[in-house]
Please model this.
Amino acid sequence: MTFVTTAFSNGHRRRRSWRRILSLLFAVTGSTLLNAQPLPPLSDVQQLAAGEGHACVLTTSGAVKCWGNNEYGQLGDGTTTHRYLPANVIGLSSGVIAISAGYRHSCALMAAGSVKCWGKNLLQQLGDGTSTNRLTPVNVLNLTDATAITAGGDHTCALIGLTGLKCWGYNGYGELGTGNTTNQATPANVIGGQNLLAVSAGYSHTCALTTTNTVKCWGVRDRVCNLVTCSYDVDLSPTAVSALGSDVMAISAGQYFSCARTSGGAVKCWGDNYYNQLGDLGNDNPNPVTPSRSAASTAAWPRSAPVTATPARAWPMARRDVGVTTPRRNWAMAVTSGR
Model:
């Protein structure tokens, strides 16, 4: 496959993320794991996108197929029936050049520059001006010249070449980068969204790679929870991740953490590390999963190559997402090579 997107998981449903990963392996490779029956392999895949409980592939002919959880219509087959095998997305049999799977919604970038989304829309993440869930793809309004897309937790963004970045959907933590916390039912301009090469939407924050190879992020910066409540520190507009410097070639935002790849192939991550997703040999895992050269070529979007971010879990501890200042786990850390 050419591209793989960032995967998301619901914080307290760790096992579901494993089932999603296994489902991806079954469909793409046809491999048998545990006692599961192998699925027919997909031999014409050029991009794969994984959401919280569903996955989609873009074929070499420009068609989209999805499978998995379909509670909100995120498979785009006109039903809410869960699918164990890839189902054709209605109306997307050709003409698609990129796809992205968010928490409970999916999006496709068309060759002409328009964007279509489907699935959960209660927080207006589909960008069609409504809050109605959609079982089949609908056009994102006022968007005809997009060059890249990214679907996050409950928000979505699209690059408009080097001229701008537009985001829409939930904005309770400033993840749209509009300078406020107002939800947007249609694409809204991100403050300072010019001269960006790539964008990656995480669960509650967003990061972008600039033409000077630096990184900017916005949304949740700190998340501190106890057994009862959580408090958040947010950035409402793009803010530089200064610790990364100006040598970044690719980015990926996950759930409460982010990763970046440098020109030399090194991977640096920051944010939550409860499940060792930062790859720094922290906690009790002596051999974390280590990005290799092949992982460095794994990309969320065309024209960029973000490493795949591992799902995280909400827990009563500090969260450091954006990486602008340097409290615990808030700086960019090099991923350690495994043995």
